[in-house]
Each structure stands twice: as C-alpha cells, then as structure tokens.
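Sample 1 of the test manifest.
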Amino acid sequence: MQKPLILTAAAAFTLATPAIAETPVLTVLTYDSFTSEWGPGPAVEAAFEETCGCDLQFVGAGDGAALLARLQLEGPSTEADIVLGLDTNLTAAARETGLFAPHGVSADLTLPIAWEDDEFMPFDWGYFAFVANKGAKAPNSLRALADSDTKIVIQDPRSSTPGLGLLMWVQAAYGNDAGALWADLADNILTVTPGWTEAYGLFLEGEADAVLSYTTSPAYHLIAEEDDSKVAWPFDEGHYMQVEVAGKVAGTDQPDLANAFMAFITSEAFQSIIPTTNWMYPAVTPADGLPAGFETLITPAKALLLSPEDALASRPAALDAWRTALSQ
Amino acid sequence: MLIFDDVVLKQGDFSLSVALSIKQGAVTALMGQSGAGKSTLLAAIAGFLSPDQGQISVDGVKLNQLSPAKRPVSMLFQDNNLFPHLSVLQNVGLGLRGDLRLSAIEAQHVSDVLTDVGLGGMGDRKPAALSGGQQSRAALARVLVGSRSVVLLDEPFAALGPALKAEMLDLVKTRLAGRTIVMVSHDPADAHRIADTVCIVADGCVSAPVETKELFANPPEALSDYLG
Amino acid sequence: MAHSTFAINPRWPGGIVAGLVLALTLGTLCAVAIRAEFQTGFGAADWAAVRFTVSQAFVSALFSCLLAIPVARALARRQFRGRSALITLLGAPFLLPVIVAVLGLVMVFGRNGLLNDAFGLVGLPEISIYGFHGVVLAHVFFNMPLVTRLVLQGWLSVPSERFRLAASLNAPVGRLIEWPMLRTVLPSAFLVVFLICLTSFAVALTLGGGPKATTVELAIYQSLRFDFDLGRAALLALVQFVICASAAIVAWKVTSPDGSGAGLDRAVQRWDGGAKRDVLVIFLAATFLALPLGMIILRGATEVLSLPTDIWKAALRSAIVAVFSSALSTVMALALALRAGRLAAVSGGLPLAASSLVIGTGLFLLVYPFVNPAKLALPITMLVNAVLALPFVLRAMAPAVAKIETDFGRLAISLGMSQQTWIWGVVLPRLKGPIGFGAGLAAALSMGDLGVIALFAGDGQETLPLAMYRLMGAYKMDAAAGAALLLLTISLGVFWVCDRGGRTVADF
C-alpha cells in the first residue's frame, strides 16, 4: 500500500508544479468561482489562448474581497498581471493601493449606468435582489419587506460581497434613514451567514422565504436545471447594482499581453461566456442577445449604485447602523 | 563488597543515611516499615537516584557517576519485569544485550538458561501465555544470562502464593549463588529462608547487616516493633 | 535533593516540534504584526465580540461535558450489538466540514426540518434553531461526541476490581470512583471543547442569527479580508491567545493528574443498576447524532456516483494530503509525548488557540517573497493540518506514552537499552492503539479542513472541501451534497481503518 501512495503523491506534486513553458505567461488573479470548472475560467482561457500565443493562468483567491486582500498582501511584487473580479464597493480601496494602471480600453458598454473609470473595466454586472420561490407572498419594496413577516437570510457585510451590496443598497435607497429600515428588517432576518454559499444553501433547504442574491439567480435554475420555480422580487426603491471589474497591474511584466486581455474582456468572445457561467449580465450584450431564459428575469425600474468613493466613505457608518439595529 | 560510604539520600522531606558494607556473595534482606526507604535504597544502588552526599561502590568501582546500565547491577521490580509484547526469548535476551539483536550463539545461550529455570521450549511465547510463576522464572532467567555481580530484588515475587514464592526464593539462592543479592522483604519468612544477613531500615537510617539467625533470636527494638 | 539521573525518552525531537509549533502559531502572528500599520484600536464592537465568543464557548463546553457524562456512563456499562459502530460514529460530527454539519443540523432542527415537521403534525409551535441556543446546539453536536469518547476512556480505565469492591461494600460508586475519575478527565475535555468553540466562526455566525453572534475569529476574518487591517487582526489573534491561555491555566489548576490507555471494546460490569435509563440515554444520543448525519447521507446518496471527475481527483488529492499530514502529526505528537513537561503541553495546546486565518496569512507573508505560494500549497496544507491536529493526536498518545515510561522506563534503563531500541522495540509496539486512533483522527481532520488551502491553492490543487465549497458557489447544491457525502465517507473510512488497525494489531 505504502509505495503506490507515495508514487501517486509524487505524481500529484509534479502535476501541481506549472510546466515551464517558453510561451509567455499572463497571470490573472481572480475569485475562486470564476476559475472553477463550472465558472467562466476554462472557456475564457481557451478563447484567449487561441489568439494570444500565450499561457493564461488563473490564480483563485476566495471571493472578491479576499482578492483585494491577497493583492494587498502581495504588494508591488505581485506576479499578477490582471486582477479580475473586484466590484465597485472595493475599487476605491483598490485604487488607493496605487497598483493599477489605466486600462486604455474604450468599449460600448451596455450597463444601465454611465461608466467612467480609466483604471477599472467592467466585465459583467447584475442587480442584487431577494430570490424566493414562485407563489410566495412577494413584498414590493424593502420597506414592505421590513413591514411583513417574511423570513429572509442575508449575508454579513463584513465578510461577504453580497452582504456589503445589501448594506449599500439600503444606504443608497434610504440614506440617513437606513438605520430605521434595518431596525424594522431585524425581525425578518432569520440569520446572517458569513457568505453567499451558506445563505443560498439555507434558502434551498427551505429555511427562509427568500435569500439575498441576484436578479439573475433564477436564470441558473431555469437554464441549468429547467426549474422555473425561483423568482427575484422587484422592489420599488430600485435595486443596487454589482458591477464586477478588471484592472491592469501597473508593474506587469507582460504589458502587451495585459493590454490585449483588457481589450479581450469586452469582446464578444469573452462576453458571450459570462451569462451562463457566471450567471450575471455581460458588460457588453453579445450581438445575438442574451441566452434564452434571461428574458424571463425581472428588470428593475431603477438602478442604484454609489460611486466607489461614496461606497468606501459611507461604509463605516452604514456598518455601525447595521450592527446596532441587528444587535438589539 | 558493596560499600555505602556515608551516603545520604533525600526525596522531598524524606532523608535516608546509609553507612555500611555488604560482603561479596551475601544475600541481604532489607526490612522495615512501608515508606521507611527500602525501595529508595535499591533505586540508589540501581542508579535511579543519585546520592546527595557520599559514594556507593562495588568491588572498588565507584557507582555515582555511572549510568544505571553501566553499573554491575541487575534489578527485578515489583511488577512489569517483562515486556508483554516481546517473546520470552527476547525478554531474557535483553539481559545479554539491550538492542534485541541476538546472535545465534547468544540465542542458544538464552535457550539453555530458559531450560535451566524450567522454561525449556517456551521461548517463543509471550509473557501473557505464561503462569505467574513462569513469568517470575523468565524474569530471573534474564538476570541469570547476564553476569552482573549485584542483584536487587524489589519484592518481585510478592504476588505469588507462599509455595511458589518459596520455590522462587530457593531458585534465587541456588542459581544466583556467588552474586551479591539485596532484597526488600515484608515477610520475615523470606529473610529466614534465604538471607545471610538482614539490615533494618527505620527512622531515616539503615542498620549495619546482622546475621539473620542472630537477629531473629535477639531482635532489636526496631525489628520487634515491626514484627509486632 | 536526590534526582533521577537518567531518562530514556529522548527530549530533543520534542524540542524541535515545539519550536515548529511556536513558529507556526506565534511566529505567523508576528509575521502579520510586523507588516501591520496599527491604525485602529480596540472598539466597543470588538469587546462585544470577545464577550460573545467567551460566553458561547463556555456554555457550549459546559453542555457538551454535561451531556457527555450520562452517554459515556451508559456506553461504559452496556454491551450491545453495534456498540463499537456507535463509538466510531461518535467521531463523525467532529470530523465534518462545518458547512456540511450545519446543513445537516438545519435539515433536522431548522424551520423546515424534521423536528418542526413533527411538531407541526401534533400541533406544537415551531422552534427556531437560530440564536445563541442554535450556536450551542451545533457546538454540542460537534463536540459532545468527542467528550463522550474522552470520558468513556476514563470510565474504562477504572479497574473493574474497584467496581467489585464498591459493590461488595455497598458503597456509593459515584462519590467513591466516578467523581474522582471525572475530576481527572473532565477539566481537560472541557478545555479542549472551550478552545475549539472559541475559534469558531462559520457556525457561530450562520446559526447565531445576526451580528450579535460575532466571534473574535470572524472579526479577524473581517480585518484580514475586508479591511486589510493587519494590525487589528494581529491584536485580535493575540486576545484570542490570551483567552485560551487563561482558560488552559484554569483547567490545569482543577485537573488531577492521571494516565490511562484502556481500550474501548469492553464494557465494565457493574452492579448499580439503571439499565433502562442507560438504554434511553444511548438511544437519545445516537438519534441526536445519527439524524443530521442520516440527512446528509440521504441528501447526497443520489449524487455521489454522478460527481464530475474533478471532484474525485480532489478527493484523491485530499486523501494524499491527509495521509501525509496524519503521519507528520503522529510523529510530532510522539516527539512531544516523549518529551512531556511544560513546553510539550504548551505547544500541544497552542494550535487550538491559533486562528487558522492568521496562520495562513502569516505563512503567506513569510513564503511569498521567496516562492510562488501556489507551488507550496499542498505541502503547506499538510504541515498546517498536521499542526492543527496535533492537540488531539497528542491527547490520544501522551497518557499511553507516560504509562509506558512509568511501567518500563526503569527496566529499560537498567538493561542498558538504547533510545533507539526503546522507541522501536518498546514504545511503538505498545502504542499501536493510541497511534491508530491519533493517526485516524489527524487524517480525518485534515480531510475535512478548508483552512489554509483556500489562501494558497492555485489551479488544479483544490482539496475536496474546497471543491465542495466551489460547487456550492456555482449554485450546484445537489452535487455539493454528493461531495459532502463523499467527504464524510472518506473521513470516517480513514478514521475507522486507522483506529481499527491500531486496535487489532495491538496484541495484548
């Protein structure tokens, strides 16, 4: 028994060491679910390598927030050429690191808002929403939700991107009255989970009436599982957006490849992969439109988004209000 | 000669002073109340305790600086004299060399000694497959295969019945003749049976050895207290 | 004062291991602290986190111990079919990845769980698992079985003669035999559970119901991941160490020393009755453990065979990591057990107090300037998993090692055995049972650990827990349930093989 095990282990390690290739390597630091077998990573890698004459390597690091922390840990000596997967709640802090260079790309984005940021380029976006089972009594606003006896699961804004998204949602919609809304929401919140995964898992087990996720979540169930029982609730206050962006690391040792990749991000090849792998809206709608099924999704009447700087600046106070209201 | 030159042993509040010599080849019994220091004295001879003062020597060799293994001393403990997971042959072989690697000649020697103590053909057994008396014989065989001149017995036969114990004591007397034997005993009958001399351990002191017969004929106060 | 002149147990390997443990726990903390710019101090929210952390850990440990006593007592007294299977099952919750166990618990105790379904049928009001009591319930689910095993060991180490004596004297068994035994076993068991719960993070938050249930570990996570405030993370980790150290000192003060290495296979024959109560207790405990596990099995059973190949590869990778880290952990525990003493005890306990996030981050900072962390992902995971399992492996081995030395140390010394012969010829053969148990525990703990791999893993290096988590992250909850079942099966299987192997090879 002993010997084969050791051999397998040796093999595993050899495989783990990246092959030394003559082709240039472009390193993209991104979040875990982007690189996973079920995410956009494999298809994106294949598509880019077709034209670049390079080896595209993804390094996965937790979620979007962990990604920024990882970059901060690595500092200027980072081997990453591209960082992909931050959202606008994090870009202000990312900008402060001074590690990013202007992307120099112009593209016809199909975002519901105007985009002006010369360092970070959106690659997809979505609306936060509460996802529930079809037929459940649906509130039509955050306020109505707070006044109802609907039970929801949310994520902790201190450890998860959607959690932070909801914090900003309430902040953007209610401003100084955010604390009051949280106080009224408190009795609707079944529990607060560390991340999206736990929350969505609890919801699917039937623990809560709704879970904080995205308006695009029902598309997964519809397209991948042929299950049309999940819906997102449209809210009158509007829906907070998550815009996921990529940036070029200033100190990259592959500036040409990095520029090529930044341009590739908004190309048809990349954008058409996004909807059914990352389950988000592409930043540039592909020529032949969105995949069948996306037309069933709700379209919020109003898109909410704080500027990165406002998001960063308002976070501490918003977090305090959230914590105070929910700790009662 | 086993000589204690003004030896003082201390353990916490307890202190034991020893100044005496024991003749080569004599069987000496240590008698005294529980906790009087009999086992402490054996531990010091074996090298598990170093004296706070004085010197212990055997035939002119000073023991204080020698590790237990380097001393010309074998010891039988109250229990756990055999390793349960080793065969009888391996256990006894440890008396010859401490590394469990017996040569063919050494193994033959061990087998001979086993036969001599009545365990012929039992070398491959584990101790658990032996009776209590046979286990004692195996332990004794381990002392026999070695040639250390001093043998310490810390009541190794206490768990045996009277007849078996007597048998084992006789075996000690005959097979270990010529070696200096120091034994701890609670039972005057043991001393009667094989000891040439007796030392009384009491009040932090060890008395000089006295002829066994003479002692029992005319017991000093410490002994009569003990015998009751 | 007369002193022992010679010791047969080698001390230097334990010294090396202690150094390694100190480097990985306190050293990584220093690595984080050195990089830190101390910006923010300790706020009211941090103190609230400390209070919640300590109180939930205390209550969880208390209930785990209180509930384990009757279960261990019943198991010690009754012999029945499936008893040894049940004892193996006791290891299961402890070895489960947190998210799996939480979902299992929710399927039983949640709003939509079995219990509320049953309550609904008979018209009882709904109960909620979310809140302080939910956190305690989950921690009891994780740790009560562990305490049961420890206490059971204590019960079985009481020589049966003493029970016979008590029976013949018609003396109170409880005060005479059981209470003194519990005094030796319970404080350290309480401490272990307290420390495990102290560093709890996902359980506390998921079932805690809101930010009230913020633990220090979550605050560390927040500092490291969201605020990139290394100074605050280091400070919080230090606070965690201080709490753990205080708890350890208290536990040592109230423990009476004892050592035992008894097997778990025999039942102690007793004459003080209570058969019906024992059966009820065993039934309740088995149900409490088996229901969530059963739900996990049911949920995953249909999915296991259709899992994608990547999951099987990840499972193989995890198994290899588990085998190596278990071997490493066992060797390290043996070295510490042989050394004994205060340094060994401290380094055997430190990993319990360490935040695996801080270890991971510290290691990352130490390694990054020299090597691409992804290249070291698996070796580092092995090492860290080995160190994190060390307290449990050491607990399994130390009393047995101490007993071997007490029983045979002097004999070996007087025979002139070399340290080499002593270890290979005496200690190891006599230690097979505890080594099997310890190695199995370490392997299973490593299987289920998500810890540092998440920070280091590059492409194609994911372990099974990470792969399972990624499945969930891609909405594939059903496949994840299959992966969870696979994980549960392998963990328990590895544990069972090692534990059994150790017990049957032991030939006395």
